Structures are given as structure tokens and as C-alpha cells.
Amino acid sequence: VNWVTPLFSIGNKRRLEEDDMYQVLPDDASQGLGEELQRHWDKEVRMAAKELRMPKLTKAIVKCYGKHYAVLGIFSFTEVVKVIQPVFLGKLIQYFEKYDPNNMDALYEAFGYAAGVSLSTVALTVLQSLYFYHVLRTGMKIRVAMCHMIYKKALCLSSAAMGRTTTGQIVNLLSNDVNRFDEVTTNLHYLWIAPLQAVVVIILLWYEIGPSCLAGVAVLLFLMPLQTMFGKLFGSLRSKTAVLTDSRIRTMNEVVSGIRIIKMYAWEKPFSALVNEVRRKEISKIMSSSVLRGLNMASFFAASKIIVFITFAVYVLLGNTISASRVFVAVSLYGAIKLTVTLFFPLAIEKVFETIISIRRIKNFLLLDEIERPNMRFTLEEKKDASVEIKDLICYWDKVNILAGHISQLTCLPSHLPQSSLLSAILGELPHDKGVLRVKGQLTYASQQPWVFPGTIRSNILFGKELHPQKYEKVLRACALKRDMELLPDGDLTLIGDRGATLSGGQKARVNLARAVYQDADIYLLDDPLSAVDAEVGRHLFEQCICGILKNKPRILVTHQLQYLQAANQILVLKEGHVVARGTYSELQHSGVDFTSLLKRDEEEEPQTNNNHSVVKHAFSQNSISSHTSSMHSVKDGADQLPVSEESRSEGNIGASLYFKYLNAGASILVMLGTVLLSCPLPWDEAWEKRVMTDKSPSLCSGLTLASVIFGFVRSLLMFNVLVKAAQSLHNRMFISLLRTPVRFFDINPIGRILNRFSKDIGQLDSMLPITFVDFSQLILQNIGVVAVAAAVMPWILIPVVPLLIIFLFLRRYFLQTSRDVKRLESTTRSPVFSHLSSSLQGLWTIRAFRAEERFQNTFDTYQDLHTESWFLFLVTSRWFALRLDGICAAFVTVTAFGCLFLRDGLEAGAVGLVLSYAVTLLGNFQWTIRQSAEMENMMTSVERVVEYTELESEAPWETQKHPPPEWPSQGLITFDRVSFSYSSDGPVVLKDMKAMFRPKEKVGIVGRTGAGKSSLVSVLFRLAEPEGRIYIDGVLTSEIGLHDLRQKMSIIPQDPVLFTGTMRKNLDPFHQHTDEDLWNALQEVQLKSVVEELPNKMETVLAESGSNFSVGQRQLVCLARAVLRKNRIIIIDEATANVDPRTDELIQKTIRDKFRECTVLTIAHRLNTIIDSDRILVLGAGMIQEFDEPYVLLQNQESALYRTVQQMGKAEAASLLESAKQVNTDTASQPSTHILSTQLDVFSLINTLTIYSKEFGQKICIICYILFHHCHG
């Protein structure tokens, strides 16, 4: 490992970066390893199917790695060397017992034994280093191969299988379960070494001290089965813990994905309680495991004392006399097998049982159903005649019947839920029961919920295809992205954050569409790509993209935008899974089908022909030119150009303060002091060994032994208890800190990065760190005892010990400077693996539709290889350190052994024995302690990463001393006073100096192009970041009250509907504030009652992850039901009806009008027909108010932005909207009392607001109020 030395000199000068790591070795590359193990697994699955049995993953692993791993057993010959060493030692001491200065033969023989002691130490150093290097590397290879297979399987899961697993479970398999391979390979060989070594030692002891050795052996034979039983218990606890960990990580995944909703609903507390409850159950299992570990470790430290005590007690009772050589040989032989039999053997059993559980979990995952992929290779002839043919098709995720004929050219599917199911069937995602589904040609797909992956905008559009500049420009223009690219700082090379955090909803939709258009496919499946963009951009996309750039290709378009149906060559109307009508626009109009009620007849447009080129050109052309140049005025309607930050990585030493924070999280200072006091007996524990040799009092020896054992057990259990509690406390604090941090944090940190801390780092705190910590703390105290005893007998032994200790500590410091950085790199290079997995699972259908599985698998392998580079480097640096420590020890033992012979005159046999046995054991202990301390410090990087997340920046407090009145807000008057808003202190301003008032009970529609600041308005109201200026609700300044007081009093129906795993009841009412009757009534209001009644357990039905067993529209209705239940005075609707069909939209609008009649309602919309009947419409542009008035008034003004937008929707639609606005205006005018009331309310609202400022403006305000009041009555 000398090749790694230059890295240490770099590491001691500066912080290591990813570029400093060595490239992964070809033998360790993820792809090769994964494919090799996959071959063995596939073969095993085939064999199992032939033999009618369940396949065994263990068999595949053994066939793949068994031979190589078995050969490594040769290196474990080191354990035999350990047994031989005490024999040489005994012979050397015997020479001093029978010392005769004249006997030269005996002296030469003694020199031979000294050489034996020296060579066995050197052999031990070399063989042990080789053994650990190779077994750890084998463990790493199995882990990497297994991760490759898990990810590959995740890409192939069928929809049914996806329902049986969760993102949380897959992340847990990749973070914790596969780590068992690293742990088990290190210890597995001890299962046969330990018994073999025990047999050899018994024979040697019999030869040395006769039958009394059997007393000690009896203790060993009692311990081995006891520890085997412990191992089985570990296995069962591991399986229970793993299920709870899956559940916790799944909930964490949902919380991080839906954090905006959780914050706006003020649901942090129930989610905190949910996660804490799962964590509490998980910790109770971990605590049980830790009690077993504590007993195991205490028995390891106590076993040697009990064995030596019993052996010599029996030896003396049988009338034998103790001699120095006998004692030292016996103590050394027991010492040689102490580690193997009482630590490594039980550890091997524990790890084997834990690994069996992990293998079973991975196997169950690998046996889940895969999607059946039809062969998509077509001849040129077939490609020319690209089509989709469907006959008598019956599909089942809910036994949907879709009956159709031949689909080609531009087919539009208006209406209800089965449209997306039809596309799923064509894609092969929805398995079909009966009927024919034939696809001729290469498919491509744009999903309803836009999916983007972390990377540049360009890489998202190209999606693995080569860049052809002309074609690329054409696609950008067609998808109205040209202007966006000009406004973004890095153009199309701008990095997109996790879940597309840097883009607005409309931009994500257009990038999603551009990706499909750029692919050179034969058939295009477009699942409602127009719903997330405003009317003008939608018009542009339809003409320039769907009917422009794609005009010569078959396109199947699902849409709710009925104004585009005239351009379709064929229209399919689906209702409850059946095709109720089919034909051209004009055919359907004359067919008398219910279809016509969905559409408004447009006599003014030119009649359509069936030729797929003749789309209504003249109606669109002039508008589309303006639309793509001005598709957007400001870049982002969410988090303006958020940098996707690099993961933070600490530098320098792990300070004492971090150790204090860690221990203090698990125990008070008093408990810590108690633990230290309990540890104090350890040094004098060592004194009793000397007593056995010098004192003939059995009672004193037995008293010392008993006290030592009791103290050992209590101390071990107490320390484990403290450390597990610390892990629980830090996890809870990290989660609370995460819930309290502003939303921006989640926009700039990928989900995988956050999950990495909750899975891998917390996993380290739960299992590996406590073992290392306890081991190190006991070792260091033991060493103090050994040195104290040795120095008491022979003070000059301190002369070599002190410089050795200084050398060791210097080496440790030199090693840790680099090793800590490598360990931190290992932690940060793990995050992209989880982020990539999470992102892939979100876009699974798109990846499969584009046949991009192989490319995503290669990306995963690249991330794995990067992690392997850092992991392998950590393995090699650790071996570098161990080899140097062992080398120094070997040199010291050699010098001591030969030194005793050169200084043979005047040395007692006992003194020589003590010095030599201490030279061997003390140095063995010393270097093991130094290594464990280094290992512990490296593991403390996980604590460091967790503690970092417990200290995140916090948003404003959830509750403050100032509470609003209980019935607040009673009116629902909202006043914006010079409000400016930015998502971060250094980010661009997205709302500028906004002044507006929303009157009580007023219905306000908010429109504006993509990026105008509509969603930012929502963020301001909910204080997702703190605005400048003042916002008053019913006279209460919102910045002075707690966030929960504010957020609980407003309801939001969000743009992206979010459901959480759990029952339907929990999704509607997590606080249990409403009765069953209330819940059913709310579902009735939103037309979901019948749907929920059909679920197997009705309201108690547990939803799939993220509510994926509901359509997007249904999820939106659940969000509406939540708002109905909350009965708040202020309702914000954020493009909530973008993904639902017109009928459902109408339903929602009716519910809003009826249920929220007494509320102030702010509706952000892309579809103007949903807000044209509002009291007033607010038009936003570039973060400023362009106009704010009644719809009819705005539409009368031909200069207004609203008028221009309406005109771009086609003559028929514009006329219809104008008529609706006129109707609303007429209704209002015909109700004078209401009108007067609204005028009075207007004035009273104004007075209310002016009163707020009266302190600042004094008398003038009062005069204004007086005049206004009289004017109102006049």
C-alpha cells in the first residue's frame, strides 16, 4: 500500500477533493461486478423454476464469490501464528528459569526461540494486513454488485410491484442492508477458525498445565453456544428493525417531497409525531440489540479474567506449584484465543444472522414482478406505417374496459380518468387481460406530471441523444423555451435542481414536452402537456409544436382544453373506461352524443377537413409569433435561479465539542460522570493478574475477579444505553430542525442528500459507532491498567513505552488528517447514488417509454464507481496505517526479545516473562486501541453530518407571544402594503413594491404568464420566506404572529396535489378534529364519496406511496376536501384545476362558489374560464401588478393585458369569455342592495386599513375616514 503515501502528504497540506481520488480499478467497476452476479442470479432463478423451489440468493453469491473468498482463508493462518507465539515465549522464559551462564547450547536455542517470537510477530503483521485487505475488498465487491442489481430491478418493476414496495424500502436496501456484506466478510472465516484455534490451544495447554486446563475450556464451551443464541436473537431483531427503518425512510421521503404542503397546512407537528413514533419503535428494537451487544462485549472483557482465574484456581487446588513460564504461556495462550473466541466468533454469528435477514429482504425485492416489454424493433416499412391498433381491449388495474379501433394521426382524448390509463396500456405500463393492442413504430411520451432530473436543461431535453444545433433550436422555439433560455444566467446549461426546483411549473411542462419532441420517434403520446401553461403559451405549443413540428407524425393527445379538438383528425371520447364516441369534430357534433355538451360550437372558424395538415392556421398564426418571443417576462415563479449547492463538507479535526454534543444528546452530565466512575476500576482490574501469580489467597482473587466482571457488565450496558439514546435524540433534533428550516433549503438540496443523512448516517449512529466507541473506551482504560501494572513491577519499562506512544500518536494524527477527509468524501459521494435512485423512481414511466434504462443504469454505475473510489481509498489508507503500527510493534518485540538475551545476566525469569508478554500484549493492545480511536474518529464524521443538520437556519417561530383573536380572521380582508419578495437574501426580487387590497368575501382571479410571480404571491401570504413590507389580514400584521397561527387560518388547494401514505382519514384530517360525518360530507361535496366507498376499507384504506393509486384529478379533489373541512375565511387556489377535465373543473368551481361563498378566495389560473366570473381579476407581469379590476371592465379596454390574452384563445372562446364576464357584471348591477353593501364594505375595508396607519399619520387619517364615511352614506 506504499503507492498511497503521496496522498497522505497532500492530505496533510490541504483538504482532499474528488479529483485527488484514484480511478476505480477495472475489477471493482460497478457494471462488471453487477452483471457477473446478475448472470449467476438469473441462472439460479431458472434452476429454481425447473426444480419447483424458491430461488436462493445466497447460492448465487456463493457461486460468484465463494471460491475466491474460501482461498482467502489461507491468510487467516495468522490465527495459528498467534497460538505458536506463546509457545516460543514459554521456551524463552524457561531458559531464564534454568539459567546457566556456561550452557551455550541452551543460549543458541534461546536465540532460536527469540527469532521465533520475532518472525511470528512479523508474519502476523503481513498476513493480517493481507487478510483484512482482501476480505474487505470482497465485501465491497458483493455490496457494489448487489446495489447494481437492486437499481436494475427498480427500473423494471411493474406497476403492481411498485405498490408492494416504496422508495423508503429501496433506499434502505441500498444504504443499510447491503452494508451487511462489508461486515460479514470480515468475520465469516472466524466461524471455523475459532473452534480450530480453541482445539489447538487446549492441546498446548494440556501439554503445559495438564487437566486443569479443562476448567478454563469449560467456560469457553459454555460461552460459545450462549453467543450463538445471541446471534439468532440479533437476526430476528434486525428483521424487525429493518421494516421500521423502511417505514421511517418512506415517511421521510414523503415529508421532504411534500414539504411545501406540510408547511402551508401547518402539519409539521403531526408528521413529527408520526416519524417520532416509528423511530421510537425502531429504537426499542435497536436498544434490545444493544443490550445483547453490551453483554457480548462485557463477556469478551470478562471471559479472559474468569478463564485464567478458574484455570489457576483448579491448578493450585490440585496441589501444583505455579511457575513463571507456566503462567505466562497459559495467559498468553488464552490471550491469543480471547479475541477470536469471545469477540470475533460471536460477532461472526451476529453478522451471519443479520446478513441472512438482509439477503432475504433483497431476494424478496428481486423476485417482484417485472414489466413485460414488447419487442420495439421495427423495419423501415413498419415505421413508415406507424400506428396504434386497439381492439376489444380489457385492462386491469381496476378492470377498465377500453374498446377502440385503429388510432393514428392526431387523436384527441377529452373527458375522464381512463385517458391516462389508455396511454399507460399503449406504453405497456398497464397489463391487458384480453383484446388486441398492437403498436407499430417507436413510441415517445410526455407525462402529465412533468418530470425533470437533476442536470442541465440541455441534458434534460437531449435525454441521451446527440446535439444537432438546428433541430435543437427548432424544438426550443416550438416549445416556447427560447425566451426562457435567454433569461436564464447560463442559458440551457443552467442546472436544474432536484425535482426541477429551479423551474416553474410551466417551464417544467415545456422541458418535458421538448424532450419528447426532440426524440426521433414514430408515435407521440402526449398526456395533457397544455394544462400547466397559460392560454397564450398553450396556443403556441399546440400550433407550433403539436400541429407544427410534429404534423407528419401520429400523435395521441390527452387534453382537457376543448378548444383544440377541432384540429384533431380523430376524437375519442372515453367515459368510465369505454369509448362512447369516435370520429372527427364535425361527425361528433352531428352524432347527438353527449360530447356536444362539452363543446361550444364555433361557426366562425373554417370547417375542418380530415387532412392532417390543414389545422386552423390563420386563427393562430399572428398570435403564435408574439407568444414565443414573450412566453415569459421573469425567469422563475418559484425559487429564482436556485443554485444546486454542493454538499457541505467539514474540514479539520473532530473537536472535543462534537464528542460532548454526541454524549450529551444521550445522557445528562451526571450520568456521564457515573459512567466515568464505573470505568475507573478497569485499570486496577489488571492488577489481579499479578495477584494470581504472587498471592496464594483464593478469596482475594475471586473477590477481584467477581468485582471486575460485575463492573464490566454494568459499564458496558450503561454505555450502550447512553449511545443509543444519543442516536435517538440526534435523529429527532435533526428532523425537527429540518421541519423548521425555510423551504429554500429543500430547493437547493437534492432529496437523496437529505435521505442519506437519515438512512446511512443515522444507521452508523445506531449500530456501528456504539460498538467502536465502547470498544475504544474499554481498551484505553485497559491499556492504562496494563502500563500501570508493568511500571509497578519494572519501572524502566516506561522508557520505551513513552517514545512509542509518542510515535503512535504522531502516526495517528498524520493518518487522520487524510483519512477523515476520505471518510467525508465517502459520505458525500454516497448522496448522488440515492438522489439518482429517487429521481429515477419518479420518472420511471418516462425512462421506460424512451428506452433509456441502460443509460440510467450506466449513470448509476458511474455514481457507484465514484463512491467505490472513496471507499476503496478509505480501505487502503486504513491498511497503510495498520501496517505501520504493526511494523513498529514487530520491531519493538524483536528488540525486546533479543535485548533480554543480551542482558541475560541478573534478570529474573518472572521479570523477563512479564516484559515479554507485555511487549506482545501491550503493543497488540496499543496498536488496536490507536486503530479503534482512528476508526471511531472516522465514524464521528456521521455524527458531524447529523449535528450539522440539527443546526440548520430556522424560519420564524411557529408560535409567538402575540396570538391573533380566536375568531380571526372574521372578515377576510387582505392588504398588501409595499410588499417586495425574494426567496433568499441574495436572490432576485420576484415581487416588487406590491400594493393591493382583497376585500372580504371577494373572489379574485390572478393571471399572468409563466414566471409572472403568481406562485410567489402564495409564498408571500404563507410566509414561506419573509417578505419586505407589510401584509395585514383583518388589521393584524402577519409578520408579528406565529407561522402556525397564520397558516392554519388560510386554506390552500395546491398546484401539485400531495397525498401521504396512511389512511384516507389521516390524509383529510391528521389532527382528528372532525367527526366521520364531517369527513363524508366533505367527500360528498367534492364528488369523491362514491370513489372512497368503493375502496376495500373505505375511509380506513391505506393509500399507496404519494397516493399513486388515485388519478391526479382525484388527488386534487382530496386537497379540495381538506379545504372544505378547514372552514377558513381565506382560500387560495393555485392552478388547482389544471389537471382535471372540464366537468370536474365545473364541479370544483361550483363547490368553491357554494361552500366558500362567505370566504375571500384568491384563484391562480391558467384557464381563464375558471376565473372569468370572479369579482375582480389581478393581472401580474414581471412581479408587478399590471392591472386589477372587474373582468368586464378589463375586457372593454382593448389595451388591457387580459383583453389581449383572451383574444389569443380564438374567436369562439373569446366571445364565450366576454359573455360570461358580461353576465357576472349584469348580475351584480341588477342587485343594487348587494352593490351598495359591497361599496360600503369597500369603504369599511379601506377605513379598517387606514386605521392601522393612524398612529403614523395622525389627524389627517381621521379626516379622510370621516369624509369617506359620509360619502358612503351620501
UniProtKB/TrEMBL annotation:
GO terms for molecular function: ABC-type glutathione S-conjugate transporter activity; ABC-type xenobiotic transporter activity; ATP binding; ATP hydrolysis activity. Residues 83-333, 703-938 form the ABC transmembrane type-1 domain. It is a multi-pass membrane protein. It comes from Oncorhynchus tshawytscha. This is Multidrug resistance-associated protein 4. Gene3D superfamilies: ABC transporter type 1, transmembrane domain, P-loop containing nucleotide triphosphate hydrolases. The chain crosses the membrane at residues 69-90, 110-133, 190-209, 215-234, 295-318, 324-349, 662-684, 704-724, 787-811, 881-904, 910-930. The gene is ABCC4. It catalyses: taurocholate(in) + glutathione(in) + ATP + H2O = taurocholate(out) + glutathione(out) + ADP + phosphate + H(+); urate(in) + ATP + H2O = urate(out) + ADP + phosphate + H(+); glycochenodeoxycholate(in) + glutathione(in) + ATP + H2O = glycochenodeoxycholate(out) + glutathione(out) + ADP + phosphate + H(+); 3',5'-cyclic GMP(in) + ATP + H2O = 3',5'-cyclic GMP(out) + ADP + phosphate + H(+). The keyword Transmembrane applies. It is found in: Apical cell membrane; Basolateral cell membrane. Keywords: ATP-binding, Cell membrane, Lipid transport, Membrane, Nucleotide-binding, Repeat, Translocase, Transmembrane, Transmembrane helix, Transport. InterPro entries: AAA+_ATPase, ABC1_TM_dom, ABC1_TM_sf, ABC_transporter-like_ATP-bd, ABC_transporter-like_CS, ABC_transporter_C-like, ABCC4_TMD1, P-loop_NTPase. Its main location: membrane. It comes from the Eukaryota. Its cofactor is Mg(2+).
